[in-house]
Design goal:
- The protein is α/β, with parallel strands linked by helices and 638 residues long.
- Among the domains are: 97 residues, Gyrase A, domain 2; 73 residues; 111 residues, Orthogonal Bundle (Isoleucyl-tRNA Synthetase, Domain 1).
- The chain is built from 22 helices and 17 strands.
- The protein has a 7-stranded mixed beta sheet, sandwiched between helices. Strands 1-2-4-3 form a 4-stranded antiparallel beta sheet.
- Strand 3 and strand 4 form a beta hairpin.
- Helix 1 crosses helix 3, helix 6 packs across helix 7 and helix 15 crosses helix 16.
Length: 638
């Protein structure tokens, strides 16, 4: 927060000089320089003015700094955070903090009871939809990326005072569920896994789903069964549709166990079967027909289908198939409209389950004997964030444009937060017995090319347990298990959140298991170090002299601590959780360098010990917040 205050002071100083010179319309920036030797802030204003004045940037900078320095000396008060303003030969203008007061300002803000409480969201209602894995298989690593990005985004938006809800869409009436039903009803697969230790979601995905898709190519009759099953599921109220519902729920419950093991939570389950039965699609379809946005094809490859025209014939998107069943996009349109509040809420709700954090996971229903009117509002959020990988970008764009046919709404309310999918490295594929031609391969549940989420977590837990056991052979089994699970969870969460959303991740099983370096456990280790120092040291608030904090590693740590609120704000504005992960790592590096190079408990003066311990406490409080945003446990011992 102090960096924000410093930037505000510098901005006011620059604005006053521009006002005195009657200069307006200059869009300058105040940013951190790449190298701290240039100070805490740097500005490009001389470059902006040089164009207008037809002069050289360094001459303009020198002239401006003369005025800025005079202004600073006149305005500088005892509490001012700015010390000097300097012109660099390149033309940049650099601002230096007053280090006799800056450390106290930074640390005092962190010690305040209101630290970490932000109001960037101003209470606006936001829905984040993520995970939403088809209920026919277990989660794989690609799903984990979606889920963890969504969960961290939820945590950050909630922290900055958005009224945030998390939805999980259950596609229990789609083709993938029909495939599983065909496998059980017509292809002879036993309803229970042959191995009783196998989770039901793993059995459905690894055995039934993969093999039934192979059987379709050999037995055309099964393909026809698939279409009839799908139609029966959509129509509902049949033994077959009820069987499909039971299978979907059984898979879903196993999927949720995986999600909860990673400390991910949800507010609402939306079942596609209820969405279809609610008749919201019929309302949407009438609007689309009346607006001329969908047409009935009487010839060609889509004969008998209702479609949305693309830019050319190959881009047409089918809404209703020739047999009357709905496509994915047709089912998603009314769901999106309901989330935005463009359609009234037709659903009742019931408590589906208690989650790992004791919160209640709600589910929608149309059954009056099960559900009741909502105790809170679910639909009608101001902002909708759909976390879906980039391969669905065009479908999401179509949905957004068709929503305008229902109501004149602001497109910025419907956000497709796109990310690139996860691929498998050739080394990992080979270790799993999968033959691939290229250096990596996209995951595919249908072809059985993926690394299961449960499998990854099991390996991570085992590796972490072995490492902790080697360091602490006398640790109790209960504590060993708890720390091992925490380390494994932090390793996978951080590994998947630290990456750029717009870049694909090549997942390598060996690399992901790293517990050192740029990893989640590294952040936990830095926190544990600070915790041990605070337990061993005696912090006396009576003898603290912040002016004693002059070591370059102390100053660097203070600089990093001063940025926290600006990073969180930037993350919430850009919807980019990676920013928090990268900042947390940078802060942990700064603390570890301070820890390793500066004597803390063995400083030569008691007042210096207290000042450094207070700096440790400031780091401890900040890192605890960041770890919570990332869904990583703050461990006191590692």
């Amino acid at each position: 927060m102090s960096l924000r205050s410093l930037r505000k002071e510098a901005g006011l100083l620059v604005d006053k000089v521009l006002l005195d010179r009657k200069i307006d319309g200059i869009n300058y920036t105040l940013t951190e320089p790449q190298n701290t030797e240039f100070g805490e802030l740097t500005s490009n204003i001389a470059f902006q003015l040089a164009q207008r004045l037809r002069s050289k940037p360094h001459l303009v900078a020198t002239d401006l700094v003369d005025s800025l320095s005079k202004q600073l000396s006149q305005q500088r008060t005892q509490g001012s955070l700015l010390k000097t303003v300097e012109a660099h030969p390149s033309g940049h203008i650099n601002f230096r903090a007053a280090w006799d007061v800056y450390p106290k300002a930074v640390i005092s803000e962190i010690m305040d009871d209101g630290y970490g409480k932000f109001d960037f969201g101003r209470g606006r209602r936001v829905v984040v939809e993520h995970t939403s894995v088809n209920p026919n298989k277990a989660l794989h690593v690609g799903h984990l990326r979606n889920m963890i990005i969504g969960d961290v985004l939820f945590r950050i938006l909630s922290a900055v005072n958005y009224d945030t809800s998390v939805f999980y869409y259950v596609d229990d009436s789609g083709l993938q569920v029909a495939d599983i039903v065909v496998g059980f009803k017509y292809a002879g697969f036993p309803i229970d896994p042959p191995n009783p230790t196998t989770k039901f979601d793993q059995y459905c995905g690894n055995e039934v789903y993969v093999k039934i898709n192979d059987l379709y190519t050999k037995n055309p009759d099964l393909q026809q069964k698939r279409q009839s099953v799908l139609k029966s599921i959509e129509e509902g109220n049949s033994d077959l549709s009820r069987f499909a519902k039971d299978i979907s729920l059984r898979v879903l419950k196993d999927q949720l166990k995986t999600c909860w093991s990673l400390k991910v939570r949800y507010d609402l389950l939306n079942f596609e079967s209820d969405m279809v039965a609610s008749k919201l699609w019929e309302k949407m379809f009438e609007v689309l027909k009346n607006k001329g946005m969908t047409v009935y094809e009487t010839q060609g490859k889509n004969k008998g289908c209702w479609v949305i025209r693309g830019s050319d014939g190959d881009d047409d998107k089918v809404l209703i198939r020739s047999d009357g069943t709905l496509t994915y996009i047709a089912k998603d349109m009314p769901y999106a409209a309901w989330k935005l509040g463009l359609f009234s809420d037709p659903f009742l709700y019931y408590a589906f389950s208690e989650q790992w954090d004791t919160s209640i996971l709600w589910a929608d229903t149309l059954d009056k004997s099960v559900g009741s009117p909502p105790k809170r509002q679910f639909g009608g959020a101001e902002i909708i964030i759909n976390l879906i990988d980039s391969r669905q970008s065009r479908l999401q764009a179509i949905i957004s444009s068709t929503l305008e046919a229902v109501d004149d709404y602001d497109r910025e309310r419907y956000i497709h937060l796109s990310y690139e999918p996860v691929t498998l490295s050739s080394r990992t594929a080979k270790s799993l017995g999968i033959d691939i031609v290229n250096t990596s391969a996209h995951m595919s549940g249908r072809r059985g090319i993926y690394v299961g989420a449960d499998q990854v977590m099991e390996i991570l837990y085992k590796k972490a347990r072995e490492e902790i056991k080697s360091r602490y052979p006398d640790m109790s089994d209960a504590e060993l298990s708890g720390i091992s699970e925490s380390l494994g969870r932090s390793a996978v969460r951080y590994n998947l959140i630290k990456q750029d959303l717009e870049r694909p991740i090549v997942f390598d099983l060996e690399e992901s298991l790293s517990l050192d370096g740029d990893s989640g456990p590294y952040l936990q280790y830095a926190f544990a170090r600070s915790q041990r120092l605070l337990e061993k040291g005696e912090l006396s608030h009576q003898s603290i002299r912040f002016t004693n904090l002059l070591h370059d590693k102390e100053l660097n740590l203070i600089r990093e601590l001063s940025k926290m609120d600006m990073i969180i704000e930037q993350c919430s504005l850009q919807m980019n959780p990676k920013l928090v992960a990268r900042y947390a790592h940078k802060l942990a590096v700064a603390f570890n360098l301070f820890y390793e190079q500066v004597p803390i408990l063995k400083a030569d003066k008691g007042s210096l010990v207290s000042a450094r311990l207070l700096l440790v406490k400031a780091f401890n409080l900040t890192m605890r917040l960041l770890l919570d945003y990332l869904g990583i446990d703050s461990l006191n011992r590692m």
